[in-house]
Design brief:
- There is one protein chain.
- By secondary structure, the chain is of the alpha/beta class.
- The chain has one domain: Rossmann fold, CATH 3.40.50.300.
- The protein contains 10 helices and 10 strands.
- The strands form 2 sheets. The protein has a 6-stranded mixed sheet with strand order 6-7-8-3-9-10, with helices on both faces. A 4-stranded antiparallel sheet has the order 2-1-4-5, covered by helices on one side.
- Strand 1 and strand 2 form a beta hairpin.
- Helix 3 runs parallel beside helix 6.
- The longest helix is centred in the C-terminal third of the chain and has 16 residues.
- The chain is globular.
- The chain starts with a strand and ends with a helix.
- The mean pLDDT is 93.
Length: 235
């Protein structure tokens, strides 16, 4: 589905990624792990065309993404929940959900994400439909950002720091949603630091350190190497 090979990206003269490579198969949940500043977000930005790489390849469903504008990449079926959420603060909850909505092809059962389906997954959205984004809590904004990404009906959902800095109850709610999405066949690329939750949810993991993949393996392999991976991730 998504295959990244030998990816190299820089900011100005400072190189950040040094040959990153990984893949996500359809229906998988795959994680990018590592300490802050190791290149995880830059990898996501490179995939989405926001920080174009200068070397390597990114293939999504047979289409080369390098050189494409971010809006064209999104239209191919990649939905991003960015670090910092970046909802439209001066739009209402409903306006946030409809502003970038797209029909998509639907999941493995052909069912598409609609307002009715999204509000069933996040019931509070209907209750606060007319509330401005700026008046939501951080956790509510994160859930709105996930719901907004789902409304694009993505083939691949990418979440950057899915639960970072959120209250425990909100984190639990987001993990519940991610488990539901996986069961529905949604392909997910996920950045987070909660190793315990990730080993229960994800199929495979890639550890990034200083712009390189230092370790990769299944959840079973991560559990077997848990202490070593914890040191890489810094938790």
């Amino acid at each position: 589905m998504l295959k990244v090979e030998a990816l190299e990206t820089r900011y100005g003269q400072s190189q950040v990624l040094f040959g990153i490579g990984f893949e996500v198969q359809r229906g998988e949940v795959v994680t990018l792990l590592g300490r802050n500043g190791m290149g995880k977000t830059t990898t996501v930005r490179s995939i989405m065309g926001m920080t174009p790489p200068f070397a390597g390849s990114i293939d999504f469903e047979g289409t080369a993404l390098r050189g494409l504008a971010p809006f064209r990449i999104a239209r191919l079926g990649l939905g991003l929940v960015p670090e910092g959420r970046q909802i439209f603060s001066d739009l209402t909850v409903m306006e946030n959900l409809t502003a970038t909505a797209a029909p998509g092809r639907g999941g493995k059962d052909g069912v598409r994400w609609t307002l009715a389906r999204v509000t069933e997954l996040f019931p509070w959205l209907a209750e606060r439909r007319n509330q401005l984004g700026m008046h939501l809590s951080g956790g509510e904004q994160q859930m709105l950002a996930i719901a907004r990404a789902l409304m694009t009906n993505p083939e691949l959902l990418i979440l950057d720091e899915a639960t970072e800095g959120l209250a425990p109850l909100i984190r639990q709610e987001i993990w519940r949603v991610l488990v539901h999405l996986k069961a529905a066949g949604q392909s997910i690329l996920l950045i987070d630091k909660n190793l315990r939750a990730l080993t229960r949810l994800a199929d495979r993991h890639y550890v990034i350190e200083r712009g390189r993949v230092r370790w990769s393996g299944t959840s079973a392999a991560l559990v077997a190497n848990y202490d070593d991976i914890r040191r890489y991730v810094g938790v």
